[in-house]
Amino acid sequence: MANPVSDPSRATVQTAAAHPQPRLAVRFPGLVRRLPWLVLAVLALFPLLAPLGGLEYYVGFVRRLLIVAIAAASLNFILGYGGMAALGHAGFVGVGAYTVVALVDAGFSSAWLAWGAALLAAGLCAALIGAVSLRTRGVYFIMITLAFAQMLYYLAVSLRTYGGDDGYGLYTPLAMGAWLDGAHPDVFYWVVLGIAALVFAAFGRVAHSRFGYALRGIRDNETRMAALGYPVYRLKLAGFAAAGAVAGLAGGLLASHNAFVSPAIMHWTQSALLLVMVMLGGLGRRWGAPLGVALWLTLEEMLKLYTDYWHWPLGLLLLLVVFRAPQGLAALFERRDGHGGAR
Amino acid sequence: MDAIFVFEQLLNGLGYGLMLFLIAAGLTLVFGIMDTMNLAHGSLYMAGAYVAARVHEASASFALAVLVAVLVTVAVAALLEVLVVRHLYRRDHLVQVLATFGIILIADDAVKAIWGVAPLMASTPAALAGPVQLIDGLPYPAYRLLLIGAGLLVALGLYLLVSRTRVGMLVRAGASNRQMAEYMGVRVGGVFAFVFALGAALAALAGALMAPISAVQIGMGEAILIPALVVIVIGGIGSIRGAFVAALLVGLVDTAGRAFLPPALRAVLPPSVAADLGPALAGIAMYVLMAAVLTLKPAGLFPARA
Amino acid sequence: MPSMNKIAAALALCCAATAHADTIKVGIALDISGPFSALGAEARDGFELAIEKLGGQLGGQPAEFLRTDFGGSPEQANQLVSRYLQRDKISFFTGPIGSNAALAVGPALFAAKVPYLSSNPGPSVYAGDKCNPYFFAQYQNDTYDEAAGKVANEKGYKNVVLIAPNYPAGKDHLNGFKRLYAGAVKDEIYTRLGQIDYAAEIAQIRAARPDAVFFFLPGAMGINFVKQYVGGGLKDIPLIAPGFSADEDVIQAVGEPMIGVLNTAHWTHDLDLPANAEFVAAFRKKYDGRYPSVYAAMAYDTLMAMDAAVRDAGGKVQDREAVLKALRNPSFQSVRGEFRYGANNYPVQNYYLREVGKDADGRLTNKLVGITLEQHQDAYVGACKM
């Protein structure tokens, strides 16, 4: 039955070893190092180039993709580096989005204030939830984070002031200060791109800091880290709160992007989708989250154009990833550079 | 509020709890013993409900409908086990989530292709369609009594199976320490295949029995999956006894929350506040219960693994 | 960056090919999956029948009807509408079943000056202070409940129990009922969204001994509730509902227990009008004898309204003022009969009482009982400044 040979992850590794492939990183070391900058440049130029090809719509699409990638990256941080499998991450996205709604409803109009508050509120909320949840392990942790997210969901559904299940429309775009025209879609795009770049840079930095290594140590062997004198619980809580805060920021941006917030963004299936996208891209891989998000959302967008039956190909893709690329898509690129990624 | 009303609500809570147990039993078996997080359990439940609804309509025999539903679902589950689930046993929980989430997506589209998107008709067997007078002044739906009976029978059956039979012993051995059991020569793979089929049969039974009192439609599996997961987590994953106790607890807390919380709040709070707060609190009672239990006992009420 | 250029060129090619000078594009966002999938499928069938009848044209001009599933999620609806607006450059929009999706997509459509002819939801927000010349409704959500309240008066019910899911729309519907209902409300019960078991609520209803129960529980919740209600032996306490809680989808899923449920709507399939008879006959012919629901009827009617508007505007869909003027003065034969738009673009029309029973072939369906509200207008029109 479950003998080692039928274990597909091992099988894949063996095949890869048996047929050495030309390694991208070895042949073009500069290219791989500069690739993130190249992608950033292309993304920055995209709104200017898009009108030439009639692709204005895709500017908004990429903007949404970047926002979801920020949320996914924060999940990747706690899950991939910290081993904390949270199934309630969309709850923090929702807290961020509803913070923006609450401020707009109260008459505030500054985007920076609203997004900052979204970050703080979600971070605080994550700290509280994490303080309780991090006492549990494994599947229990998955489930308790889900329970808290469900509570937040039902709270939002019954909040009459903010529209409840019908949601809340943000009719005027938030102001981004004298220098930036908040209503201009391209300006908002660049702001999102800037924030996304900062978030990815920050996560990249943290992953290789003492804190990041400590988290990975905890993921691999919690007892040993505790024995070594690391404050395991506090480190995990700090990571969880930080990830919640970043997810809240993504929620705030998503509220502005959609000009609308409804409880649907924190339904448990959204939390599951975030998990799925992160694992699709590659758990604990630096570029796993954006890759997973980009592939999933693009496929969803394309499939819906052609058929009403657009769920099953996505399901099949998940099975393929599980059995053919268990380390995620990012691993397909990274494995070739000889010292594959974080894991 | 008289005694009969309180009694009736307790009975309702018990009934709802046993309904949850029917679904949770299969889930906790698979989850605890095979250490496999099978989100597609809800899809098997849906399959059971759809097949039962169709067979019941065509044959007019409810018993036959339940039997066929169980057989068909077990056949589907066996296929699923060979193709997918078997290869997931040794993998990470998250990988299992990913794969079984994929199965949900495929199953929903498959059901849509076979039966369409409109909810199916699933009628109550005529003999049990009305209420019976339990005691004077308390009519109770006859069909719910059947559900309560079925829930208790399943609980008893599983208890006997796990504690009194050789299969049960293997199952317990596999659950508490799989590696050790393997060293002792237990063919864990065969046990697992059996357990998965049993779990599927229980899911199908639950689906077939729930069909007459709930909507048979796409997404029904996901709607019931969350309360079922809550139940097995509160009970302690893998513990049948835990799932049973937790199911009754969740059923009672949820029902009591809906029945008694709004009037209680109305008595102590201003009406406008009570009107908003009561239903909102009753809606999340189950989740509050779970968070409270896990805060006090991080591995559930009856942890299966020492 | 050769690869980038290649991709851009390929995308440009694919998108340029779809643009055609004279084709009128209609964006239809469908709920084929998600919480409203059964109703979304009904709407799709109505749209498809209309497209067939119109020969793929609007007002005699070639038209393209873009139909895309958005899975019932407001966020995805939003995304889809930006694609329709920016990539496809649509001239009309319609489709979503839920109020939440309608509210999510409204602002973008209104800013782009694209008429949104709702085929189903008529949220109170768009009827009142956020009303917009580019939004046209089929009915206001609470008007069904107002009619139901009047039915309760006419039936002589002195005290009723109300039940709805615990979210603002649920409260709106119960308030709508209370607006015209003159008797006493014994209890208002709010349930969890997506609740499966209703035993506790049914016990409360039995203890309250009301003359009737008014329920607004859309989709699966209504199916669960009615099945358990009848099983609980409350068959003798009549059920009243707004049409959405007792339409074809619910009737066919619940079966016999639905018999006798009173419900109100602004259309029924046995309204004796030539346009309606033609629609119902064509629908039953195309879809194996099944009766259309309000969702299918209004989807069909929506495309007929577009067709008439394009014709009346002389085919100039780019002249938004002319199109709006034509839409406001509908010249087509609606399946619901006579109606006109109020100041908020919500119809002033009749509302009917229907009762679930069996037709001549023994098929369970809604049957027309009579007119409840004549040329009725919604309660929010006063707040609309347009």
Automatic annotation (TrEMBL), chain B:
InterPro entries linked: ABC_transp_permease, BCAA_transport_permease
GO molecular function, one term: transmembrane transporter activity
Subcellular location: Cell membrane
Keyword Transmembrane: yes
Stretches of the chain forming a coiled coil according to its record: none
Membrane-crossing segments per the record: 14-32, 62-85, 97-122, 142-162, 183-209, 215-237, 244-265, 277-296
Main location: membrane
Keywords: Amino-acid transport, Cell membrane, Membrane, Transmembrane, Transmembrane helix, Transport
Pfam family membership, one: BPD_transp_2
Cellular compartments per GO CC: plasma membrane
Membrane topology, record value: Multi-pass membrane protein
One of the GO BP terms on file: amino acid transport
PANTHER family the record matches: ABC TRANSPORTER ATP-BINDING PROTEIN (PTHR11795:SF442), BRANCHED-CHAIN AMINO ACID TRANSPORT SYSTEM PERMEASE PROTEIN LIVH (PTHR11795)
Family listed: Belongs to the binding-protein-dependent transport system permease family. LivHM subfamily.
Name of the protein this chain belongs to: Branched-chain amino acid ABC transporter permease
Lineage: Bacteria, Pseudomonadati, Pseudomonadota, Betaproteobacteria, Rhodocyclales
From TrEMBL, chain C:
Keywords: Signal
Keyword Signal among record annotations: yes
InterPro entries: BCAA_transport, Leu-bd, Peripla_BP_I
Signal peptide: 1-21
Gene3D superfamilies documented for this protein: 3.40.50.2300
Family the entry assigns: Belongs to the leucine-binding protein family.
Name of this chain's protein: ABC transporter substrate-binding protein
Species the sequence originates in: Pseudothauera nasutitermitis
